[in-house]
Amino acid sequence: MNTFLPWALTLGPVLLAEALLARHEVLVYGAGLRAPLTRLPDGVPYARGADPDRPPNAYLVYLDGIGKRRVRDTRDGGQLVRAVLAGAPELRVLGQVQPYSPLADPLADRPVWAWLRRRIGLLLFLHNVMQVFVAADHRYRPLYNRAVGSQTATQLRLAGYRPGCGTPVVLLSYSGGAQVATGAVGELYAQLGVRAVVITLGGFHNGANDLTHAEHVHRLTSASDRIERVGTWIFPQRWRLFRRSGWNRARRAGKITVHRLDPATHLGPRSYISPEGMLPDGRSYLDHTTDTVIALVRAHCGATPVTDERSVVTEVPGVRSSQCRTRRGDPREASVFEHRTEAEMRLYSEKTARELALTRRRKDGGDNDDAPERSDSGGVDSDSPANDEEHVTTETPVTEDSQRAD
Predict the structure, then answer these.
(1) Structural domain spans, the chain
(2) What is the structure's pLDDT at 336?
(3) The pTM is what?
(4) 10-302+314-387: which CATH topology?
(5) 8, 51, 215, 335 - which has most CB atoms within 10 Å?
(6) Least confident of 60-74, 158-172, 267-281
């Protein structure tokens, strides 16, 4: 008790002040009092990975968790980015987007926060936590989404992306970055004409953002991830009861697929991005997550693993490589899901094989407007009571969520 009281008296006013001031930056952005920063520090590239002289198979934007406070990667997030780059050199990866700063101003570079970081480093994490809740607040959410969506679109342009080129864009988000990733989808579509693929890793978000313009949402989760589970409890828009929320509309449209990474946790030595913890198959948790992310990205862009160092663009059976980047709506556009066999799809993800079968069934029998949120375990509607506690194990353990959780 004697130890708790001084901490409470110190942190209490600080938390109150932070809660009151958290909306300041998004309001400054909305009023146009400051322009968002676009230039990166010397020595920091706008993208890493695929040769700038050749079009990449996809652009991947990494939106880190609440530890993000500078342009460069955080310690843990940097490990994931490096692992993805090593495993998929055909991608062009951006990690400099500031998901917790509508003005794209890195927190660690601000004089006051730099002083606080040396004395009370915890405040930087608390600041970003508050920004997640500002981004989720219905009063500020549209403005916040536009700010970070515009920031992401600007960085993509600086990295070589051309609006309407058709090259896939993937938003890979960790923890609270999912709130920003799901919110940036609409602005990316408006500015770049691209339907982004969203991959959430232990995503903490309120489920209110409109996902109409998302190509697909892949939810990477684990039964041992308590932090993500809290998000599914405290935000009513994540409950199936709220059928009109953005998340539930996307679920019914068949846009959300669950991938289980059990027994990973959100933090610690067994976290999704831990290089120390080992799985029974000999892979680390980081390797498992990286393999899953790369497989999903390649399934969407129709790429195969790079074997020729001279080129990052490889041929897909039945599909010319350029077709993966034709503009949506172009008569020449060829869907990878239509041209590849079900067996070939399984090489990259069990989900994509079912995506192919579902697409064909819809073409034959008409679109089903009440499709359930799918899982790698076989696509059974998790609203069914018989499936609430079912756990089906494949190469990646997967299961459907409970009715209340999502």
Answers:
(1) 10-302+314-387
(2) 35
(3) 0.74
(4) Rossmann fold (3.40.50)
(5) 215
(6) 60-74
